[in-house]
Amino acid sequence: MPHLIAPSVLAANFGQLAQDVQMLNQSAADWIHVDVMDGRFVPNISFGFPVIESIQKVAQKPMDVHLMIVEPEKYIEQFRAVGADTISVHLEACPHLHRTLQQIKATGAKAGVALNPHTPVTLLADVIQDIDVVCIMSVNPGFGGQKFIEHTYRKIEQLKALLLETGSDCLIEIDGGVNQQNAPKLLAAGADVLVAGSFVFSSANPVQTIQELKTIKI
Ligand SMILES: O=C(CO)[C@H](O)[C@H](O)COP(=O)(O)O
């Protein structure tokens, strides 16, 4: 399967969000990545339902919603109602992860699990068959524009081995500090989906930058 590019609108210009989403519609982006932060699970607050609903009205690509919030199970149906196609919760925020994954699937959305940099992929072994996307955080969640953590390559390889061993077809998504330099190595290690925020939106030509990420050959 060709790899997917999911630009993160966390790095968009919120004063012209509709234009930035339209730019993504015209680009080679596959998904639109939407980062929700609550000021509790992570030390930052981004945006909530009304903003996501506004994005959804313009977006012509699936919305990949990454919940960096405590007690995500309280809001799954609402995120689906405002247009989330994939809903990712953090393993560290879910004491009843299996139940939360079933809850996401019951809405019709794809179920994702995100892992902080310190969380081993082996903790997913008993729920891997219930996951559509594993989001490996390659920065500590909460802020865009941070430095990529090199240990991520090893985690991708470990997760890839778990997927092969269990026959799972779940996608491996990498989120944080992704750029043109590390993207080929991430794909070679087994990544399927690259999230890129600041690298795309701070570039002179975001459409071309997305195209360049999309056409990387390994
Ligand atoms: O989840 C996130 C932060 O918690 C962002 O999606 C991630 O940091 C992407 O931004 P950048 O490409 O600028 O690092």
From TrEMBL:
It comes from Rufibacter roseus. A divalent metal cation binds at residues 33, 35, 66, 175. It is an enzyme of class 5 (isomerase). It comes from the Bacteria. Its EC number is 5.1.3.1. Catalyzes the reversible epimerization of D-ribulose 5-phosphate to D-xylulose 5-phosphate. The active site is at residues 35, 175. It catalyses: D-ribulose 5-phosphate = D-xylulose 5-phosphate. The keyword Isomerase applies. Keywords: Carbohydrate metabolism, Isomerase, Metal-binding. Belongs to the ribulose-phosphate 3-epimerase family. Substrate binds at residues 8, 66, 142-145, 175-177, 197-198. GO terms for molecular function: D-ribulose-phosphate 3-epimerase activity. It holds the Pfam family Ribul_P_3_epim. Its cofactor is Co(2+); Zn(2+); Mn(2+); a divalent metal cation. SUPFAM superfamilies: Ribulose-phoshate binding barrel. Binds 1 divalent metal cation per subunit. This is Ribulose-phosphate 3-epimerase. Pathway: Carbohydrate degradation.
